[in-house]
Structures are given as C-alpha cells and as structure tokens.
Task: structure prediction
Amino acid sequence: MPCYFRKVHYTVALFKAKKEALEKILKGTELAPALKWGSHYMVAIGLIRYFESDLGAYDEVILSVPSIPLHIKKPFSNWADLTGPLANRKVGQYIFHIPVTSSFSEAAGKELWGYPKIVTPIMHDFKPGSIESSVTDAAGKNIMQINGRLGFSIPSIPLSLITYSFKGGDKLRTEVKVRGGMKLYLQQSLRLEIGDSDHPMAKDLRLLELDGKKPIIVMDSDKFQSVFGEGIAGWK
Result:
C-alpha cells in the first residue's frame, strides 16, 4: 500500500433510483443515500479497464451508492462535499457489486478493502463517441449491458473519493486519489438493459428499476489514474 492504477479507461454513469430501493440495498450498513436529484437519489455504475496497475490488467464494473454514515454530522451540501478535501469528506461510495475479470484483483480487493469482488465475464468496447459494455454470469446469461453514443462533452475535473466498506465485520474508510482529464457528456444516449440472469447483481438492478433507463450524468476519461490508500478502521 498504497496501490497504484497507472493507466485506466474510466466511465461512470449516474442513474436515478427510488430512496426506498436504495435503503434496501443499504440495510444493515448504517449508511443512507446521500445524493438527491429531485425526488430520487443517485446510484453509480462504473465501467473500468485497467491497462497498467499494481493488480495487473483487467476489466471491472462497479455498482455503488453514494452514501453518508447515519451518525455523523452532515455537511451543508452533500453534492458540494464531493469537491472538498478527502480528509474531511463525508459522502462516500458504498460498493454493493464489483465484478472483475482477474482472480488476483478479486483476492486483493477482498483482503485489502473488503470489496465484494467476484470473477465473471465482462466485455468493454470503448470507442470514440460510443460505449458497449456487458456483464454475464457463470452460466453465460446476461446480467446487464450498457450501450449507446456519448455525444457532446465539456471538460471536467476528476473527483477524488472515499469508499465505505466492511472487512470481517469491521468498518473501513478508504481514500482514493484520482487525476486525469475527464469529459462530462451532456447529450449522451446510453441505455442500461438488465438481462435474464438470476444473479444477485441482476436482481438488485431490477430492485432499483433501472432496466431501460438512461443515466442523467456520464463522465469518461481514457487518461485516468488513481491511488488507493489503506482502509482505515471506523467512519468519521
């Protein structure tokens, strides 16, 4: 530690979901959904290809809920908190599914940070102006896919983040420092489709009612880098 991810293609899509569904995902975590958009809250899907990292080269998909611990003093604005210093950050990502294509990454993610990684087939096709991505289960059934064009973009800054996780029942808070030019897509046409798999990831996507939905925010970078620190016990 720290763990370096030196050459990465990173896409994150934020979708609207009902608070009640997100609370079911977060049940027992002592976390609450943090980012409100109208009457809904945000859930994030990350599509990631690691070309060079301390964990090797592999593909990954992250499903997470931007969350905040129930017992802490809340910031003035949860959205503004995302741009504050990491040491003072309150809003973090609770990862509830994280399929990968590498057994080493799976083992490291569980051992170092308590992330619920599994190994399963992932297909990413990042083209100029479009994305095709899918995850399948061990039986070859489709869990999810995201396809579409990205359209017009404007430059954006990368946002470092924290994650909230559990390892052996203990709470961990991990700081993730990021850098690299990002693009914010304003007219994208991405769509999420849920497959016929009965995998827990597909079931949770159905619970969130995301089938056929379009993300409201998409950010992308082919020059992304991140540094994961050691998970620190406790949430503050």
In short: The chain has a mean pLDDT of 96. The first strand starts at residue 3 and ends at 17.
